[in-house]
């Protein structure tokens, strides 16, 4: 068996703020002047449904159980197997979890988290949520325009943006598009750094990251962690979850929090974790990655597990086979940690911070306030949405081309209709088709909304803008160019080719009617898309809804033959069709 010396760790930055248990009161005072985050007796339960659809029962599932710890300035890693509670703990510390089922306290420098903590701290989600049709600089400009105070001049904001670009090593790609599935953009590592830059714009003292190495190759992942390490040396408290880092990444950690099945296995300096596990009877083999070793021990499939202390001391006595009544290994490790010196020292510091909280319990925190006004947010959201439309040819330019093509085809088929009995029947048919065409063309608004949903949720929670600003910004950017312009083009082509009434008033009535149909259908599409996360599902639901409206509109079947319950289904198509007639 190897000793802890088989693994060499790089020196920690600010060793006094990330040292072993036993930090002196002077050290604690120095830390509390910075960004020190502590969490006390965190428990989190959720209600889940189980069983068959007709007989489902709601059961309570415990996600986290009595989690305690302190995150100091430096690189604080939360490690554990899948489903261990890493992301849940991270979201709770970042104040981004539903408080229902949550108990315990999270303190910042001994005081409760302020209401605007989500706005003042940085949070980088696992899936990079940046606008791919914009350049790296434009994404950072958007963050700066909405999150920095209006008291800062534009020159100061530009300097902040340039500083972040230089700090993250993005100077060469600053004016390159981030990239989408249709546009080739920057690399995965540069995209991740752009996401980090969006949060660094506000210069947060605490930065949260949810599995920042996911989807990156080993070299790029190592570069991202080296960047975070350099940032932590500037005094930032960086807290992140990670699944299975390689050794070159693991040795960068200052603090390690090890979770399994919602229980705390270890919390303390990362370089002392191997020694702690050795004291529990679990030794890491030479040249083995400590992170892999910890996960193997928790999962019970490590060849290095030695449960008998006598064997560890060299007596060589074989261990007895565990009986069925023995506790699971995770419970044993959790109980061992509770009686360890690491936990005792952590509890002493937590009690000190709790005393500070009692003194600050009457401190009033301001309510959440946005850095910018409604009009300022509306202007920037509309501007970005317009750019995004232009950068998505499949949803903007393609729709204009399809509109022109369909207009010419319909005009050719129904060219110069006569006023006899057959012509009147053909006119009724083409007007019904024009109305339905506007409905089905509005389905394109679903895609951009569903794709942007994750982006909206992240930006709204982070305090970029109000919901109303985003809503009206989307309306302006979608209704004006994507509903009004195609309706105008469609009317101009079909009206004269079909040979409808040669009157100015009739022409504009038809144009306005088709616009109203497009607006109504687009609003319905957005409403359905708001509850869906998959584009294909939202599109399918929209298509089904429009088909029912078409059937029950009273045009294909006499109204007297329809049942009363079908009447709401014809509210979009029938009134507009009657207006055109």
TrEMBL record:
Its main location: membrane. The keyword Repressor does not apply. Signal peptide: none annotated. It catalyses: riboflavin(in) + ATP + H2O = riboflavin(out) + ADP + phosphate + H(+); ATP + H2O + xenobioticSide 1 = ADP + phosphate + xenobioticSide 2; sphing-4-enine 1-phosphate(in) + ATP + H2O = sphing-4-enine 1-phosphate(out) + ADP + phosphate + H(+); methotrexate(in) + ATP + H2O = methotrexate(out) + ADP + phosphate + H(+). Residues 37-286 form the ABC transporter domain. One of its GO terms (cellular component) is mitochondrial membrane. It is found in: Apical cell membrane; Mitochondrion membrane. Keywords: ATP-binding, Cell membrane, Disulfide bond, Glycoprotein, Lipid transport, Membrane, Mitochondrion, Nucleotide-binding, Phosphoprotein, Translocase, Transmembrane, Transmembrane helix, Transport. CDD domains: ABCG_EPDR (cd03213). The keyword Nucleus does not apply. It comes from the Eukaryota. Its EC number is 7.6.2.2. Gene3D superfamilies: P-loop containing nucleotide triphosphate hydrolases (3.40.50.300). It is a multi-pass membrane protein. GO terms for biological process: lipid transport. It is an enzyme of class 7 (translocase). GO terms for molecular function: ABC-type xenobiotic transporter activity; ATP binding; ATP hydrolysis activity; efflux transmembrane transporter activity; riboflavin transmembrane transporter activity. Residues 1-24 are annotated as: Disordered. Residues 14-24 have a biased composition (Polar residues). The chain crosses the membrane at residues 397-417, 480-498, 504-522, 534-557. Homodimer; disulfide-linked. The minimal functional unit is a homodimer, but the major oligomeric form in plasma membrane is a homotetramer with possibility of higher order oligomerization up to homododecamers. Belongs to the ABC transporter superfamily. ABCG family. Eye pigment precursor importer (TC 3.A.1.204) subfamily. This is Broad substrate specificity ATP-binding cassette transporter ABCG2. The gene is ABCG2.
């Amino acid at each position: 068996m190897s000793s802890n010396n088989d693994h060499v760790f790089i020196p920690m930055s600010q060793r006094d703020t990330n040292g072993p248990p036993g930090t002196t009161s002077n050290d604690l005072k120095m830390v509390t002047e910075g960004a020190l985050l502590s969490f006390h007796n965190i428990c989190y339960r959720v209600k889940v449904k189980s069983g068959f659809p007709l007989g489902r029962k709601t059961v309570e599932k415990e996600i986290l159980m009595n989690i305690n710890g302190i995150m100091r300035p430096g690189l604080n890693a939360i490690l554990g197997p899948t489903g261990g509670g890493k992301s849940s703990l991270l979201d709770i510390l970042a104040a981004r979890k539903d408080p229902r089922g949550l108990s315990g306290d999270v303190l910042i420098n001994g005081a409760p988290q302020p209401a605007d903590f989500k706005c003042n701290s940085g949070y980088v989600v696992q899936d990079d949520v940046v606008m791919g049709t914009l350049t790296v600089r434009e994404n950072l400009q958007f963050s700066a325009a909405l999150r920095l105070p209006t008291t800062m001049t534009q020159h100061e904001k530009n300097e902040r943006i340039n500083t972040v670009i230089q700090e993250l090593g993005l100077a060469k790609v600053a004016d390159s598009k981030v990239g989408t599935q249709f546009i080739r953009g920057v690399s995965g590592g540069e995209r991740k750094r752009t996401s980090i830059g969006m949060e660094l714009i506000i210069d947060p003292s605490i930065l949260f990251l949810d599995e920042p190495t996911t989807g990156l190759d080993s070299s790029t992942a190592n570069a991202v962690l080296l960047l975070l390490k350099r940032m932590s040396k500037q005094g930032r408290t960086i807290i992140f979850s990670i699944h299975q880092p390689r050794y070159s990444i693991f040795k960068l950690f200052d603090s390690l929090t090890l979770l399994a099945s919602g229980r705390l296995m270890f919390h303390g300096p990362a370089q002392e974790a191997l020694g702690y596990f050795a004291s529990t009877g679990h030794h890491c083999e030479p040249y083995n990655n400590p992170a892999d070793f910890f996960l193997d021990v928790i999962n019970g499939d490590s060849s290095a597990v030695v449960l008998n202390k006598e064997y560890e001391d060299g007596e060589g006595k074989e261990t007895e086979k565990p009986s069925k009544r023995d506790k699971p290994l995770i419970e044993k490790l959790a109980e061992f940690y509770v009686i360890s010196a690491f936990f005792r020292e952590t509890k002493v510091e937590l009690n000190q911070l709790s005393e500070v909280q009692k003194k600050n319990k009457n401190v009033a925190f301001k309510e959440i306030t946005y850095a910018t006004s409604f009009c300022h947010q509306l202007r920037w959201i509309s501007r970005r949405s317009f750019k995004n439309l232009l950068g998505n040819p499949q949803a903007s330019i393609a729709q204009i081309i399809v509109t022109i093509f369909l207009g010419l085809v319909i005009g050719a088929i129904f060219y110069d209709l006569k006023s006899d009995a057959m012509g009147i029947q053909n006119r009724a048919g083409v007007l019904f088709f024009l109305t339905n065409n506007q409905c089905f063309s509005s389905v394109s608004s679903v895609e951009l909304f569903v794709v942007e949903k994750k982006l909206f949720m992240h930006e709204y929670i982070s305090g970029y803008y109000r919901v109303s600003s985003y809503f009206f910004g989307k309306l302006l950017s979608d209704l004006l160019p994507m509903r009004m312009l195609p309706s105008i083009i469609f009317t101009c082509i079909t009206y004269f080719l079909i040979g409808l009434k040669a009157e100015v008033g009739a022409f504009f009535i038809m144009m306005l009617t088709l616009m109203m149909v497009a607006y109504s259908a687009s609003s319905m599409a957005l409403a359905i898309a708001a509850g869906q996360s998959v584009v294909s599902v939202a599109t399918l639901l929209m298509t089904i809804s429009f088909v029912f409206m078409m059937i029950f509109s009273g045009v294909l079947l006499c109204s007297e033959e329809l049942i009363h319950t079908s009447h709401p289904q014809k509210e979009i198509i029938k009134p507009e069709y009657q207006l055109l007639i």
